[in-house]
Amino acid sequence: MKLYSGPLSLFSRKVEIALGEKGLAFEREMVPFSQEKGYAPKHEAVLAANPKGQVPVLVDGDLTLYDSTVIFEYLEDAYPTPPLYPRAPKARARCRQLELFADEVLWQPVSRLMYRTEPPAADPLRRAEQETAAGEAEAAIAGHCDRLARMLGEQAFFCGELTVADIALFMTMLWSRRLEGPGWETHPSLARWHERLMARPGVAKAAAEIAAADRGLSPPL
After folding, report:
1. Where are the domains of the chain?
2. Contact between 63 and 53 (Cβ < 8 Å)
3. Alpha-carbon span 81 to 11, nearest angstrom
4. How far from the centroid of its chain's Cα atoms is residue 105's Cα?
5. Cα(85)–Cα(157) distance, integer angstroms
6. How far is CA 73 from CA 69, 83, 91, 105, in A?
7. Helix axis angle, 164-178 relative to 188-198, nearest 10°?
8. Are 56 and 3 in contact (CB under 8 A)?
């Protein structure tokens, strides 16, 4: 099994964590990346596999897949033990919806903070626009964290046991903190959830590698 990943690709890191949780051995190839050029030039194998030209790309024998959600679902079907989805249909649907929430709803305001990894805009008007947008994004993220804290309650994980929902939510919230946005600190239940996840070797490894890549690739925040 081979995974094409990226040093600052939260979606690739999701898959790395899932592979580790399932105890699956895999070869990892980090595609070239820089803050100046991003993933240009695109890796040939990634371009051949994914029309969007993005990581992650997973190769398992004669099967090649892209998109972290599709990869999650394949891994669960092909390697069901230990499970990363609930068994009951309604609980599984809630888990899938939480992953989608992390990737598409929570990520939207987080992505609006990405400018913080770039040199400050020279144009004062542009800087003011970025700061206004960042304030709106941070308010949206904080609201989502309030909602997530209520959903989690006193559970250890969002769906009872560790699932892909926890992996996805962890990665998006980690990106929020990486970009100096809201995180879990003001919510005790989320803080405890974060500690539980960080106690898992695969999660801790991914977080440490992201921090190292940040120091090597990003300007000081």
Report:
1. 2-78, 89-200
2. no
3. 22
4. 13
5. 12
6. 6, 11, 15, 20
7. 110
8. yes
Q: What is the pLDDT along the chain (221 residues), one digit of tens a residue?
A: 999 999 999 999 999 999 999 999 999 999 987 666 777 778 888 989 999 989 999 999 999 999 999 999 999 999 999 999 999 999 999 999 999 999 999 999 999 999 888 878 888 898 899 899 999 999 999 999 999 999 999 999 999 999 999 999 999 999 999 999 998 888 999 999 999 999 999 999 999 999 998 877 765 54
Q: Going by CATH, does the domain composed of 89-200 fall within 3.30.930.10?
A: no
Q: Which residue's structure tokens are 């400050």? A: 120
For domain 2-78, give the CATH number. Answer: 3.40.30.10
Q: What is the Cα gyration radius of the chain?
A: 18
Neighbours of 34 (CB within 10 A): 11
Residue 181: φ, ψ to 5°: -100, 180
Q: 62: buried, middle or exposed (CB in 10 Å: 19+, 13-18, 0-12)? A: exposed
